[in-house]
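TASK: fixed-backbone design
INPUT:
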C-alpha cells in the first residue's frame, strides 16, 4: 500500500496570517462559561428570560465571541494576577450553590471584590449613574456562598464558612487605565433580594414555563443586554429577512393584534412626553450650574469644553468648488425613517 501524503503548503499559504477571530471563537467555545447551564451570579438581576433559558437548559443560539470581549477577559485575568501578587488573597474562587454558581474574582478576607473591565463609555456611565443593582447582587451572592461554605474550589474546604464583612466592585477602563472602586458592607437584605429574584424565576419556569417569564431587555438594536445575549435568536426570533418581512424589526413581531398596535402607539406617546419633560428639567438644572463646579454630597460636578476650534466651513467650500467649476462630490445615502404620533381631533355633533 502506498502512503498518500498531504500536499506541502505553498509559500503564499505559509505567509498567510492565521485568523485571530477564529482562534478566539474556538477558545471561547471550550471555556466552561460557554457551556454553563446553571445560572451564574453575574446574570442575577439582569434579564429574567435569559435566566429562565438557563434553568430550562435551553441551548444558546448566539455563542459568537468578539475580539473586544476576549481582550477584556485577558486584561481581567492579568489584573487579578497583579492584585493577588501584591496583596495576597485568592482570585477566581469557584462557588456553587443549589441554584446559582459563580467565580469570585478576588477574596481578600474579609472583603469580596468583583473586577469589571469596561469601555470608556461604560466607565463614564458608572461614574454618572452609579453601580447597577445587578452588580451589587453579584457580589452579595458571592459573599453569601462564601459565608455558607458553598465552595467549589480545592483551595477551600467545602462546607466551611468563610468570613466576609465587605463588598467591593472595581471598574477598570480599558481605554484610559483609570479605575474607580465602590464599597459597601455585607447586607443580608441585599442578598435576600437577589435570591428572591432568582427564586421567582425558578418558580415561574416550573409553574408556567419559560415563555411566561418576562423579558427585561428591549430587544436587539435598542438594548445592549439583548445584543450580546447568548439566547438572542431564541428569544426574539431569527434576524429579519428584508425580502420576506420588509423594513421591520424583530420587536415589531410582538405587534400582532389591533390592541397590540394601540398599546404600542400609546407607549410611544407616553415616553415621548416623559422624555421632553425630563429634558426641560435637565436643561434648567444645567443653567443653574453655569459657573459652578466641585463636590455636591455624593456627586461631583465639573465643566469641560468651550474652547475655540477650527473646522471646515461646508457651505463656503461648496461655493468655492462651484466658482472653480468643479463637480461637487456626492454620495447616495438613505434618509432616516421618522415617526409622527398625533392626537385625533374629536368631533361634536
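OUTPUT:
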Amino acid at each position: 500500500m502506498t502512503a498518500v501524503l498531504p500536499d506541502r503548503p505553498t509559500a503564499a499559504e505559509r505567509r498567510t496570517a492565521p485568523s485571530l477571530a477564529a482562534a478566539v471563537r474556538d477558545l471561547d467555545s471550550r471555556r466552561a462559561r460557554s457551556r454553563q447551564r446553571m445560572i451564574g451570579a453575574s446574570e442575577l438581576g439582569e434579564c429574567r428570560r435569559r435566566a429562565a433559558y438557563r434553568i430550562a437548559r435551553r441551548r444558546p443560539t448566539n455563542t459568537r465571541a468578539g475580539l473586544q470581549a476576549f481582550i477584556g477577559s485577558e486584561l481581567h485575568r492579568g489584573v487579578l494576577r497583579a492584585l493577588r501578587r501584591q496583596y495576597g488573597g485568592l482570585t477566581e474562587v469557584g462557588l456553587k450553590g443549589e441554584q446559582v454558581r459563580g467565580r469570585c474574582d478576588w477574596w481578600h478576607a474579609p472583603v469580596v471584590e468583583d473586577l469589571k473591565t469596561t469601555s470608556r463609555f461604560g466607565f463614564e456611565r458608572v461614574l454618572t449613574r452609579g453601580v447597577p443593582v445587578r452588580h451589587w447582587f453579584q457580589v452579595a451572592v458571592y459573599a453569601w456562598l462564601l459565608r455558607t461554605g458553598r465552595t467549589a474550589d480545592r483551595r477551600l474546604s467545602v462546607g466551611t464558612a468563610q468570613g466576609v464583612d465587605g463588598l467591593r466592585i472595581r471598574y477598570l477602563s480599558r481605554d484610559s487605565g483609570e479605575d474607580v472602586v465602590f464599597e459597601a458592607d455585607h447586607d443580608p437584605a441585599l442578598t435576600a433580594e437577589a435570591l428572591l429574584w432568582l427564586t421567582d424565576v425558578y418558580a415561574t419556569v416550573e409553574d408556567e414555563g419559560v415563555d411566561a417569564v418576562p423579558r427585561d431587555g428591549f430587544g436587539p438594536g435598542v438594548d445592549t443586554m439583548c445584543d450580546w445575549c447568548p439566547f438572542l435568536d431564541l428569544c426574539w426570533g431569527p434576524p429579519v429577512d428584508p425580502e420576506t418581512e420588509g423594513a421591520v424589526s424583530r420587536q415589531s413581531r410582538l405587534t400582532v393584534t389591533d390592541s397590540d398596535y394601540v398599546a404600542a402607539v400609546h407607549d410611544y406617546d407616553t415616553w415621548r412626553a416623559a422624555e421632553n419633560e425630563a429634558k426641560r428639567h435637565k436643561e434648567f438644572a444645567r443653567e443653574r450650574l453655569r459657573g459652578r463646579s466641585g463636590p455636591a454630597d455624593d456627586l461631583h460636578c465639573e465643566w469641560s469644553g468651550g474652547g475655540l476650534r477650527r473646522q471646515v466651513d461646508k457651505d463656503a467650500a461648496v461655493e468655492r468648488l462651484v466658482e472653480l467649476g468643479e463637480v461637487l462630490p456626492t454620495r447616495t445615502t438613505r434618509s432616516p425613517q421618522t415617526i409622527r404620533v398625533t392626537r385625533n381631533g374629536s368631533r361634536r355633533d
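COMMENT: Residues 32-36 have pLDDT under 50 and may be disordered.
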